[in-house]
Design goal:
Elements (H helix, E strand, L loop, with lengths): L1 E5 L4 H12 L3 E6 L3 H7 L7 E4 L5 H8 L4 E4 L18 H20 L6 E7 L24 H15 L4 E6 L21 E3 L3 H13 L6 E5 L6 E3 H12 L22 H7 L6 H12 L1 H8 L3
Parallel strand pairs: 1-2, 1-4, 2-3, 4-5, 5-6, 6-8
Antiparallel strand pairs: 7-9
Helix pairs in contact: 1-6, 3-4, 4-5, 7-9
Length: 304
């Protein structure tokens, strides 16, 4: 099957590429030709087709989606840990041009084809807003209540996709940390008492790869999380990661106090359809440490 992945060289994009290639699909990568993206692309040299471009340019998007069976749309400016170095909340108008405008360009390009491709869109649990006064888990039928530009962009994109003539599926993702995690300020914005469901980036890649060939996911919104074994309070997540890195848990005062837009999810349907939940938080720490290598010793040396 011919699959194009937008935002192919981001966190989830790389995981999706790896799973799609293992499954034997012909994969086209669409992303900005930045230095970082070109470096990541070298890992897939000879195994994927590269189409460099900008989702804000209709001609670039049209070239990317031409003659494809499925579009996996991941290109989006996010609130934290963005590979662009710019957070969606700092420049909401600019990020909307990419997030919403880019998605509309994608829909238009797909609909213009004689045989339009199907579309899988990566949305987010952020659309539910601050839900810690409500009993978990969140479900697909829960009302959305976005409090940030990023979440509003996701909802606007979801609505545009559902109103289109395309066959679509929407995956609302739980917290999906990059394996190359950096100890930046973003990690400490979340209150320790915040409910958070974690999902391994490679499991998200598996969900996407399984979804591409499924006949049961279309016209569905699915919650993609790690499952009951990956439902934590943020204190447990940070302790596991920081202790695994050799830093050790930090004082409560190091963390934020404003409730964050994360929660536990009902993933029963998505797991039934996609069979993707294979890894837990310990697997994440193992994979993250494998990437750190020698830097792990430096972290411990300069722990204080």
């Amino acid at each position: 099957m011919k699959v194009v992945v937008t935002g192919a060289f981001g966190n989830v994009g790389v995981s999706a590429l790896e799973e799609l290639l293992v499954a034997g699909h012909c994969v086209r990568c669409f992303d900005l030709p930045t230095k970082a993206n070109r470096k990541t692309a070298k890992r897939f040299r000879g195994r994927v087709e590269l189409v460099w471009g900008d989702v804000r340019q209709p001609s670039d998007v049209a070239a990317a989606v031409a003659d494809q069976d499925v579009i996996v749309h991941l290109a989006f400016i996010i609130p934290k840990l963005s590979v662009t170095g710019v957070e969606s909340e700092d420049r909401p108008d600019w990020s909307r041009e990419i997030n919403v405008g880019g998605t509309r360009n994608l829909i238009a390009a797909a609909e213009a084809q004689s045989k339009p491709p199907r579309l899988i869109f990566a949305s987010s649990l952020h659309i539910y807003g601050q839900t810690h006064d409500q009993a978990p888990p969140r479900t697909v039928s829960d009302p959305v209540d976005p409090i940030e530009p990023y979440a509003r962009h996701k909802i606007e994109c979801e609505r545009a996709i559902r109103a289109s003539s395309l066959e679509w599926a929407i995956f609302r993702l739980a917290a999906t940390f990059p394996l190359a995690l950096k100890l930046g300020s973003a990690m400490f914005d979340v209150p320790l008492g915040n409910r958070m469901e974690y999902v391994h980036t490679r499991d998200v890649g598996a969900a996407i790869a399984h979804g591409v060939v499924s006949e049961e996911i279309w016209s569905k919104i699915l919650l993609i999380g790690g499952g009951p074994g990956c439902q934590f309070y943020y204190r447990e997540i940070t302790r596991t990661i920081l202790e695994g890195m050799g830093v050790g848990m930090l004082p409560n005062a190091a963390f934020g106090s404003v409730p964050f837009c994360t929660d536990w999810l009902d993933t029963e349907e998505s797991q039934h359809l996609l069979a993707y939940q294979q890894r837990d938080l310990d697997d994440y720490v193992h994979d993250m440490l494998a990437l750190l290598r020698f830097n792990r010793h430096l972290i411990r040396m300069f722990r204080r």
